[in-house]
Amino acid sequence: MRNNITIGKNIFRNKETAIIFKDADRLRHMYMLGKTGVGKSTVFQNMCLQDILNQHGVCFIDPHGESINWLLGRIPKNRLEDVVLFDPSDMECSFGLNLLDASENFEKDFLVAQTIEIFYKLFDPEKTGIIGPQFEHWLRCAALTVMAGPDGGSLIEIPKLFMDKHFEAKKRKYLKDPMVIDFWTKQLANTSDFHKSEMLNYFTSKFGHFMNNALMRNIIGQRKSAFNFDQILDQGKILLVDLSKGKIGEINAQMLGLIFVSKLQAAVLKRANIAPEKRYPFYLYVDEFQNLITDTFASLLSESRKYGLGVHLTNQYFAQLPEKIQNAILGNIGTMVAFEVGIEDAERLSKEFYPMTKEDFLNLPRFNFYIKLMIDGKTSEAFSGVSLPPQEETNPDNPKAIRLISKLAYAVPKKLADEQMRNYIR
Ligand SMILES: Nc1ncnc2c1ncn2[C@@H]1O[C@H](COP(=O)(O)OP(=O)(O)O)[C@@H](O)[C@H]1O
Ligand SMILES: [Mg+2]
Q1: What pTM did the predictor assign?
Q2: Which ligand is closest in space to the CA of residue 340?
């Protein structure tokens, strides 16, 4: 298997040299910054296509859907079977994506912690106190209860837990965690109905949006996810996530993106159980990532290397990212690419990219960048590069065929999903 890929080319005194990103260095990740239209998505598309041609597992999370269509038109025949395409905008059927389905205890705890982080990210990104420790505790205990037992459960079943005594009893039978048992037997038993319903209202006011939207409910409410994320990693699949906001709405796109990143992360951490030589490299691309990454993810970047995950992130300007994530990115990322940016970012970058100056970043022509490239574990001095033009389309019939195949293989017909949801919510 080959891992080395080309990011772009360097031109020095009329001599062109390919900028090669080596396998081991890719596990130290890549971050790319630049104004809209400078060629960022194209760089990721070209890189991801090389990974696909090199027989690797990849995931591309695409906020517009255009990069995915582009990739689909270029996937070679021998990899068609590896493609797993998630398209939430489909009206006839739904791909299940249950944040809370987990096979191991540590995974349960991890996903519940992620659930709480997702709530913060969606409803209180600056952590101003809208979501407090008490709500966190309730949500943690409720989520762990919903997940208990052989059938598991999803986020949309949480309100039912507080409204349906029979369902509550059925779930509580399976609990083993003393903290969660105490929550039901001691804490909740001593909580007034008024306070209970207040908490429940709080949950549904935040979460109601997803529960009342049939499209979202049918996706996040299914107990079993359509994809097994462990297999996607270990069998080197091509997971393409189409989150076109225009089709499904911004907050829905954000929610789904956050769930994908959380599920992938859980699968990566599970690789602790397999031998290091079997942790085949897997490459994740997140375009316009600012809304899809939680604090945990950013800080896990340093660890994900040992599990064979190489992460590629891009966005338009630093101020889109919370301070904590900015620092985690700058601290943990091996390779940085910067296209033309605005004045604030130019100032910051000139400090990171010595000897480049603020003016250098303000005056970059389209498709031109500066890069600090990790080479054999060491980050190079900054140098200049030009990106590669988009590669020619090779298989124009692919997109339609792949969309259909993925739907048949992974999605549930809408009618069936509607019926399941009625049972889970009632
Ligand atoms: N190196 C290149 N040479 C020629 N055209 C390019 C190159 N890189 C990108 N493009 C084109 O420029 C446009 C903007 O690129 P895109 O990657 O979408 O930018 P961004 O993601 O930064 O907004 C697209 O139409 C793309 O096909
Ligand atoms: Mg783009």
Answers
A1: 0.96
A2: 1
